[in-house]
Each structure stands twice: as C-alpha cells, then as structure tokens.
Design goal:
Elements: H1 2-26, E1 28-33, H2 37-48, E2 53-57, H3 63-67, H4 70-88, H5 103-117, H6 123-128, E3 131-135, E4 138-142, E5 145-148, E6 157-164, E7 168-170, E8 198-202, H7 206-217, E9 221-226, H8 237-249, E10 253-256, E11 260-265, E12 273-277, E13 282-285, E14 287-290, E15 294-296, H9 303-306, E16 329-331, H10 351-366, E17 380-382, E18 387-392, H11 395-401, E19 406-411, H12 416-420, E20 427-432, E21 438-445, H13 448-461, H14 480-494, H15 497-512, H16 515-518
Parallel strand pairs: 1-2, 1-6, 2-3, 6-16, 8-9, 8-14, 9-10
Antiparallel strand pairs: 4-5, 5-6, 7-15, 11-12, 12-13, 17-18, 18-21, 19-20, 20-21
Helix pairs in contact: 2-10, 4-5, 4-7
C-alpha cells in the first residue's frame, strides 16, 4: 500500500516536471508584433542571440519602407530625375526632345524595385535566420499572453518579453468632402497607372515635398499646400527657403501659410476636385494627395491589458532604453513617442531610426536593459532635388542650451564639384560650440545625405570640426564643403595670438639649433 502511494507521488512529480518542461519549451522568449523594419531587426537580433522568437505580421513582411515608403518613393524619384535631366540638358549643351512620360511604365519600375528587395524581408529569409513568422491579427490579453486570429488550435501565445513594432498609418484629416475625393496617400499612390494631369498635395513635409516635386518633374501640374509659413518647417529656415525656390523652379505652385478647409467635386463631374483654402482661395486638381504625417498603429492591440501607457497622440511612451510602462514589454520604430533628445529635433519616422530601435529593444529584452537610444546623432534626409540633410541641433536649439555657439557656413558656389555640375545653390551649415565641437549640421545640395555622414560621426562622438582638416579627401567631391569648413576652422585656430606666438617660437628654435645637430643620426640614403 505504501509502495503504491510512493509510486503515485513519484508519477505526479514526473508529470509536473514534464508539464513544466513542455511549458518552458512552448514559452516564447521574444514576441515581436509587426514585420516592418523595427520588427524585422528586433526579431533577427534576438534570434542571433539564441532566443526563441515569434514574429507576428498582419499582412506582409517588409513594412512601410519596402511597400509604401523608402523603396517605392526613391524608385519614383529616380524616374523623375531622368525626366528632368532630359529637359535640363540644354544648359550643358545637350539638347533633346521633350521627354514622353509613361506613368504606367514608371510604376512598373517602382514595383520591380520592391520585388527585387522583397526576398530579403521574406518569411523564408526570416526562417533561415531562426525567426518563426505567424500571420494574423494579434491582441494582448494580459501580461505574457496574447491571442492571434487565424490560429488553427486557438491556443494563446505565451511569452516572456515582447516588442511592439506595429508602425504607423497615413493621417487623413476630417476636412469636409475630402473622403469623397478618394485621396491618394503613400499607401495608394503606387497603384496609379494613368497620367495625372494635375495634383493638389496637402502637406509640405518630407513626403509632400518629395512626391510633389517628383510628379511635377514627370509633367503633372502640382499645387503644394502647407499650413506653416515654409516648406519643411522642422528644418533650418535657410534650408526651407532653398528647397522652396527649387520646387518653384520645377513648376510647383507652393502655397505656405494656407490650410485646406473643404474639398468639392468640380462641375461637370469627372473634371477633378476643388480645394478651398482658409483665405477663400480655391485650387483644382484631378487628384488630391494627402501627406500630413502618420499616426501610430496601436488600435485593437489590447495594450491596456498589458498596462502600456500611450501619449495623447497614440504613441507608445518609452524611456531611452525603449521600455514601456509594462514590465518586459518594449516598443520600437514609428509607434514610439518622444524620447529625451537633449534639445535635438526628434527624427521623423525613418527606416534607419526604426532599425536602431529594433536592435536596441531586442538586445535589452533578451539580455539586459543596458543599451540606450540617443536621438542627438540621428540624421534625416529629405530626398528632393536638392536633398536636405540634417543631424543634431539646429542653430536656435543650440543657442538655447549652449554658450558661445558659432555657425560656420559654406556656400556651394565655393565647392568645385558643385561648379562643374552647375549645382551651386546649395549650402553647408555646421553648428559649433565654443570649443569647436559639432553640435549639428545641415547640408542642402546633391548627395547631401552622403555628405552628412562625416558630420554625423562628429556629432555622435562630440568631435571637433577641425579634426577633419587632417583627413585626405578625394578631389573634387561634394564632401569638399565639409572639408573646406574644417580647413577654415583650423586656419582660424592657428590665427589666434597664442598659436602665432607658439609658431614663432618654433621657427626661432629651428634657427638656433645647428643643422648638423638637427639631422644627427639620419644617414643619407645610398644611391642605387
């Protein structure tokens, strides 16, 4: 009898151990919600660290960057640049007939670029990296638990840690009549297959400026509306002014300080849409494109069940380690709200920012929350012509937090590469503290995003501009603007009274020391 009881107790202990082992095996180390850039990087990072990772994506992996953002927009702008080059060749002595633009063929090029890059972010590629991908709509049901629509067995997902990376969606304002116009957004514009004779763009931020200029260069009559007093209102005023002038040269009707208040159909029906402005003026377009920002995609996630705090904008509130208010839950990418920025303008939803977020969030979730996100050295680029690139503090922000701020400005008329390509309307502005360290920089011109790289490195490590004076740069290059600014910074340092006195003493010392002593120990090379 006693032996039977012992046997049953031993059997129950073995059963409990087996149950716990199976539970541990089923428990997900890191649940990643969202298959865009932040989610992909987070999932791959965690898998490389040896974690069991499940990534849940509602539609297709790759996110906005691949399907509606960076990749299609840059492919579109490349086509627009070629059309512009054909029209603009006469100033270089190259004359050609006006280009014929086939918008359907342009979009074929756009789609081909997406399809070529898509395999990198595919389910198969993720599986090869050790990431399990599941499709469906996920909802958190409580700490460590979530349900997924479409699962065959209906079993809840159980996880130790989670990264919320659901991204953001285009904002559609409640302007009367706008919905009737079936407005284009970055989600739908790539499905166009017929010419657009005229276009009204709402919003002159990076997306509005890029697409507005792109359509104008492809032959569309574009009206660009912006409620602020200048295009790219978050950038330095000088950068905004130079881009505004470039847009006007490309035929864009730029109207700043104006807000759309109503949209109505033009009569007779089918002739487009009329947008009424807050000053009573009216503008017309065959289509309306909305580029008024993006809102975080958090609806329906069940974040309240986790205890995740959101801002009034809907963004998930995180600290600089990307931890939310819920233990073990992190957030990354476009869904994230403001972070401590040290006075820097926070970057807008950019792919490279989402990638950094994904890496930091996954490492902190799987290992320990040690890594921090520092937005002070996060660059951003608007890929118009000219490009507008910025990193760090603007001049105004720098003066608010630092003493002795200086700005070194170099017009691109002084850059030989710009002269050879007749692109001298650009500028490079570097914001320095009193010790000559780079606090921020803005570059306006061709390849500005690449030119900014050196300055971004200096901002990240709080380096001095004059350090670049000793680095050999290939000539002629667009980066000469930065190099010339560094040389000027070094020249000013050497021109100080103390530096001149030290140099004078060095010259006098060389005069006093006999030549034979100065060259002692150095054997003359033997003739060969």
């Amino acid at each position: 009898m006693q032996h039977g009881h012992q046997h049953r107790r031993q059997h129950r202990r073995q059963h409990r151990r087996q149950h716990r082992r199976q539970h541990r095996d089923q428990l997900i180390d890191l649940l990643v919600v969202g298959g865009g850039t932040a989610g992909l990087v987070a999932a791959r990072t965690a898998a490389r660290l040896g974690a069991r990772v499940v990534l849940v994506e509602r539609t297709r992996t790759g996110g906005d960057c691949l399907w509606t953002g960076c990749v299609p927009s840059k492919a579109f702008l490349a086509a627009a640049a070629h059309a512009h080059a054909v029209r603009d060749g006469a100033r270089f002595g190259v004359r050609a007939a006006a280009p014929h633009v086939d918008l359907a063929a342009v979009m074929t090029h756009v789609h081909a670029a997406r399809e070529r890059i898509a395999p990198v972010d595919s389910v198969e590629a993720l599986a090869a990296d050790g990431v399990e991908v599941r499709h469906g709509t996920l909802r958190f049901s409580g700490p460590g638990r979530a349900t997924l629509d479409g699962e065959v067995d209906g079993a809840p997902l159980r996880f130790r840690r989670a990264v919320i990376a659901t991204g953001a969606d285009p904002v559609l304002p409640g302007i009367p009549g706008l919905a009737d116009a079936a407005p284009l957004t970055t989600d739908s514009v790539w499905d166009l297959d017929a010419p657009v004779p005229s276009l009204v763009v709402l919003g002159a931020g990076p997306i509005g400026c890029e697409l507005g200029q792109g359509f104008a260069r492809l032959g569309t009559a574009v009206t660009l509306l912006e409620a602020a007093d200048r295009v790219l209102p978050v950038e330095e005023p000088e950068a905004s002014a130079r881009l505004g002038a470039a847009l006007a040269r490309d035929g864009v009707d730029v109207r700043t300080g104006r807000r759309a208040v109503a949209v109505s159909a033009v009569r007779p029906a089918g002739d487009g849409w009329e947008v009424e402005l807050d000053d009573g003026a009216r503008v017309r377009g065959a289509r309306v494109l909305v580029a008024l920002g993006r809102a975080p995609a958090t609806a329906g996630l069940g974040l309240d069940a986790l205890g995740v705090t959101r801002a009034s904008t809907g963004h998930v509130v995180v600290d600089d380690r990307l931890r939310t208010s819920a233990p073990g839950v992190f957030a990354a990418g476009d869904v994230v709200g403001d972070l401590p920025s040290g006075g820097a303008l926070l970057p807008r939803p950019f792919t490279h920012v989402a990638g950094v977020h994904g890496s930091v969030a996954a490492t902190n979730a799987v290992l320990a929350p040690l890594r921090r996100v520092d937005h002070r050295a996060m660059p951003r680029v608007t890929y118009t012509a000219p490009e507008v690139a910025h990193v760090g503090l603007t001049e105004d922000a720098a003066r608010e937090g630092h003493d002795g701020v200086r700005v070194r400005t170099l017009e691109h008329g002084e850059v030989d590469r710009a002269v050879t390509e007749d692109e001298t309307a650009g500028v490079t502005r570097v914001v320095l503290d009193r010790r000559g360290r780079v606090l921020g920089a803005t570059v306006v011109g061709p390849r500005a995003g690449e030119v900014l790289n050196e300055l971004t490195a200096l901002v990240a490590r709080r380096g001095r501009l004059r350090e670049l004076a000793g680095v050999t740069h290939p000539y002629p290059g667009w980066g000469d603007a930065v190099w010339n600014a560094a040389l000027a910074e070094l020249g000013d340092a050497l021109a100080t009274q103390a530096a001149r006195r030290a140099a004078r003493l060095g010259v006098l010392a060389r005069r006093v020391v006999p030549l034979s002593r100065a060259s002692a120990g150095r054997a003359a090379p033997r003739p060969r």
